[in-house]
Each structure stands twice: as structure tokens, then as C-alpha cells.
Amino acid sequence: MSVLIFSFMLSAQYQWSIEPIRCSAIFVEHGVLNLLDTPIKLADVKEVIYCQHQRYEHIVRFRYHNRTFQDFELSSSDLIADLQLYHFLVAQGLVVRMTEDSSQFS
Question: Is beta strand 38-41 parallel, antiparallel or unpaired with respect to 26-29?
Fold first, then answer.
């Protein structure tokens, strides 16, 4: 089991409120990535798009083979944690593409 510790904040947006959720660990177990308590089957992921849309704020989009996607908004002032997340995703065999164009996430 691979375990990597991060201190990201997820801005989970509900209709009229924003509720931050702290993540303490991101790990892979039996081919399933657990990111912010959300299980993601690695075999279903086509690519990951990683975009910085504001300073210290990132969007990570998981595109699946069935043409659906799932977005996570992460914020961290720690550049090292950002790079660790990127390298962790690549080490799991995922195709990770970095972009500065946040318009594709609208």
C-alpha cells in the first residue's frame, strides 16, 4: 500500500455554501486511489489534468474512459506538496497533463 500525506483543503461546493474538508492521506490500495475519501479505480482513469487556476489553488480533473470526469479543487501554499501529488499520480501509472488554461474546467 502506498501512502502519501498532504495538507490540502478541498472546497466542496454545495448549492449556496462552501465547506472545507481537510485531507490527511492519499493512498492506493488494490488498484483504487483514495483521494479526499473518494475512491477512484485507476483502471477507469484515462488521464489526469492538473491546472493552477489561482495562486495556491488547483483543479485536478480525472477523465475516465467512459467520457465522464470528476474535478477536485485543492488549495495549498506548499509548492512541495503540489509536486509530491503530481509525482505520486505519475508513479501510479496515470497520464498526468499540466495546463494553465482553466477555461476548459468551466
Answer: unpaired
- From first CA to last CA, the distance across the chain in angstroms is 35
pTM of the model: 0.70
pLDDT tens profile 45-67: 999 998 877 777 888 899 999 99
| C-alpha dist (Å) from residue 37 to 33, 58, 66, 104 | 9, 18, 22, 25
Domains of the chain (ranges; CATH) run: 2-105 (2.30.29.30)
Three-class SS string for 80-99? HHHHHHHHHHHHCCCCEEEE
